[in-house]
Specification:
Layout lengths: L1 H21 L4 E2 L22 H15 L4 E5 H4 L7 H11 L2 E6 L18 H21 L3 E4 L4 E2 L7 H18 L5 E5 L9 E2 L4 H11 L3 E6 L9 H10 L3 E6 L16 H13 L2 H4 L3 E4 L8 H20 L3 H9 L3 H13 L3 H10 L6 H8 L1 H14 L7
Parallel strand pairs: 1-2, 2-3, 4-6, 6-8, 8-9, 9-10
Antiparallel strand pairs: 5-7
Helix pairs in contact: 1-11, 2-4, 2-11, 5-6, 8-9, 9-11, 12-13
Length: 401
């Protein structure tokens, strides 16, 4: 019995080590800055105020977790001069040992997008949006970034005020042009959201709309799933499974929510959901899941910026490790025989298994701190950046970004 127990523990450790060695989750530059809601923001003394500070914070997270070597960039916030800022970003990559991740255009903040961007009734404004998207794609090519991540905030607030049918056609036209301009190793990820900032209709409101646009664009387009962008009680893992099945899942923006798109830290409300999503991904064939990108997209309005990001990455690692421990062969057998209670217990037992000790072993074996949050606290990094940035943050205006 003892030897068998030791054998199981060794097998589990091997599974966890293998899973974590390949697990990567991208951190967003904006997660280190002062952000908030449409009502305003609470300024933090240690928040990043420049793109270099964002790279510094991201590098700290990667050094502590070993899972986040790329940082997602926002074109308007991180490259305000567009393509002219590429050289500066490349210098920061070299200085901090980080790589640029997904490139995120901004089609929701400028005044001309009041009635939409790529679905705006004005051909002139749609042209402005298209140029921004093409510039963003070129930035991605120059930085060697694979993914152009598109969130289209377009929609309307009142029935009868816009032609939903015409707006579909306008979106197809613009997205098709962007797809045609992508480099050989680039792809575009199309996100969806049921509401906000539009409250009557959103032009890309669910995964079906996103999927159809992806198919009409071509093979370099895929669907991006934001875990906060669903109506209550939506079975997100079923959506993930369908997208895997039809080979159109491009990646995730991970966060958590209680009511609507709350942008809470991953797993803070429903870690079981994240576990279920990871299970479906790991259940797919290795080829089917190879190009699925994991990215964080959340707003740390109250939690410390760097601490919250480390906490999120650690949580993602632990939940991914749990999913990797599911006895897939045994579960498949129980499912096939419709042994419901036993199948569910096989699933639940793995979720409740405490993987933290073996994850700590993996970290130490890979030269990482056994307890990243404790190591961050002991390093003095947060105190240091708070001293250095406090005066700049004190002058920050009370707006979203």
């Amino acid at each position: 019995m003892g030897n068998n127990g030791a054998g199981v523990a060794e097998r589990d450790a091997q599974r966890v080590f293998s899973a974590l060695d390949s697990f990567r989750i991208e951190v967003p530059s904006w997660g280190f800055a002062n952000t908030g809601t449409r009502f305003g923001k609470f300024v933090q003394g240690g928040a990043a105020t420049t793109i270099e500070e964002k790279f510094s914070d991201a590098a700290q997270v990667n050094a502590l977790t070993g899972a986040s070597p790329t940082v997602a960039l926002h074109v308007l916030w991180d490259l305000p001069n567009g393509k002219a800022d590429v050289a500066a970003i490349q210098a920061l990559e070299k200085k901090y040992g980080m790589r640029s991740g997904s490139i995120n255009p901004n089609l929701f903040q400028s005044a001309e997008y009041k009635y939409g961007s790529i679905a705006n009734p004005s051909a002139e404004i749609r042209g402005i949006a298209l140029k921004h998207l093409l510039d963003s794609a070129e930035i991605g090519r120059e930085l060697g970034s694979k993914d152009l991540s598109l969130w289209i905030a377009d929609g309307s607030n009142y029935p009868g005020t816009q032609s939903i049918r015409k707006r579909i056609g306008w979106m197809e036209e613009v997205l098709g042009a962007v797809h045609a301009a992508l480099g050989e190793d680039q792809r575009m990820l199309i996100e969806y959201k049921p509401f906000e900032p539009a409250f009557y209709h959103t032009d890309i409101a669910d995964w079906g709309m996103a999927l159809e646009l992806v198919r009409r664009c071509g093979p370099k387009a895929k669907v991006l799933v934001d875990t906060g962008h669903h109506p209550p009680s939506t079975n997100i893992e079923q959506i993930v499974t369908w997208l895997l099945h039809v080979k159109e899942l491009g990646g995730f923006h991970f966060n958590d929510r209680k009511y609507a798109d709350d942008d809470l830290t991953l797993g803070s409300i429903d870690p079981y959901q994240v576990f279920r999503i990871f299970h479906e991904i790991l259940s797919a064939g290795e080829r089917d899941r190879a190009d699925v990108a994991f990215m964080i997209d959340q707003s740390h309005n109250l939690k410390g910026k760097v601490e919250a990001m480390v906490q999120t990455v650690v949580t993602a690692q632990e939940l991914y490790a749990k999913a990797a421990l599911i006895d897939q062969a045994r579960l498949a057998e129980l499912q096939q025989e419709c042994r419901l209670v036993e199948a569910e217990e096989c699933f639940r037992d793995t979720f409740w298994h405490d993987v933290r000790p073996v994850v700590r072993e993996w970290r130490v074996a890979r030269g990482l701190p056994g307890e990243p949050l404790k190591a961050l606290a002991e390093s003095g990094y947060v105190e240091k950046i708070t001293r250095e940035r406090a005066n700049r943050n004190a002058r920050s205006v009370s707006s979203y970004v």
